[in-house]
Amino acid sequence: MNTANSPMQALRIIFMGTPDFAVASLDALVQAGCNIIGVVTAPDKPAGRGMKLTESAVKKYAVEKALNILQPEKLKHPDFIAALTALKADVQVVVAFRMLPEIVWNMPILGTINLHGSLLPQYRGAAPIHWAVINGESQTGVTTFKLQHTIDTGDILLQKSFTIGQDETTGEVHDRMKEIGANLLVETIQAIAEGAIQPRPQNELIDPANIKHAPKLFTENCQINWNQSAASIHNFIRGLSPFPGALSKLDEKILKIYRSEKEIATHTHAAGSIFTDGKQLLKFAVTDGYIHLLDLQLEGKKRMLVADFLRGYRSPSAIVIN
């Protein structure tokens, strides 16, 4: 994008984000020549065996680019509010960050812009990519919108849709989405700077009764129910891959499945029955066929492809087939 003398270069922007997903957006704004006057990210946290203080992905990038960094423990702390006020931002941009109090999101004259990983108002919530894949959606997208009181309900600015492959995992969608979202964010800031954008209230776009939600995922949500169709289970597995991972049991040990393949077939086996050739095939019976495991991790072992797993493992509960 040619940003020479672009109106958006005059905007004073504060960026808020923490994980790798947010780095793509921050980098896109920097590369577009935006005036990033501050970067707000999570405090350094102890991690690993040595509990060494670890910086967020956004902080690492901000340090590399010599950007002004703020790492508040509490977003309502007077010192943080005073620091934000002193920066006199025209607009704030939020990508994969904490919920903001009104005193923060309502501070800039042009408001606070959020990048969300779905085509709002569909899939409001903490896990929009996961749930779109789990539900077998063939399309998703990204949305920029203005923050307001209720989470993910603010007026929409811009949207960009893209397809989800039939076997694509949440991780793969995530990696494509962060780049698509970064580009959309730059377009949004450009349009705001030029006064060329008309916010659209979400309640005008869809009947609230038809909205699909994207709540946070917990371990109890990750258990595979083999009494479902092959398509549903396949979508569930790829929707939870690579994190937090779809869970089952194999010989009383926790089995995490990252990638699968569905086989539609008529059979009389009980759902959850396990079959293997001991070489390259490990599959579970489901209501309308089988789910073939391709990439997995058994409790106490490392993640591996099924052929590598079977090379060193013999399941006493699996039915051996030729």
Give structural attributes.
322 residues; alpha/beta; seven-stranded mixed sheet; Methionyl-tRNA Fmet Formyltransferase, Chain A, domain 2; Rossmann fold; 25% helix
Mind sketching the topology for me?
Layout: E1 12-17, H1 20-31, E2 35-40, E3 45-47, E4 52-54, H2 57-64, E5 69-70, H3 78-87, E6 91-95, H4 102-105, E7 112-116, H5 128-134, E8 139-146, E9 156-163, H6 170-193, H7 230-239, E10 246-250, E11 253-264, E12 274-276, E13 282-286, E14 289-298, E15 304-305, H8 306-311, E16 319-320
Parallel strand pairs: 1-2, 1-6, 2-5, 6-7, 12-16
Antiparallel strand pairs: 3-4, 7-8, 8-9, 10-11, 11-14, 12-13, 13-14, 14-15
Helix pairs in contact: 1-6, 5-7
Give a structural overview.
- The structure is a single chain.
- The protein has 322 residues and is an alpha/beta fold.
- The chain folds into 2 domains: 204 residues, Rossmann fold (3-Layer(aba) Sandwich), CATH 3.40.50.170; 102 residues, Methionyl-tRNA Fmet Formyltransferase, Chain A, domain 2, CATH 3.10.25.10.
- It contains 8 helices and 16 strands.
- The strands form 3 sheets. The protein has a 7-stranded mixed beta sheet with strand order 5-2-1-6-7-8-9, with helices on both faces.
- The longest helix is centred in the middle third of the chain and has 24 residues.
- The mean pLDDT is 95.
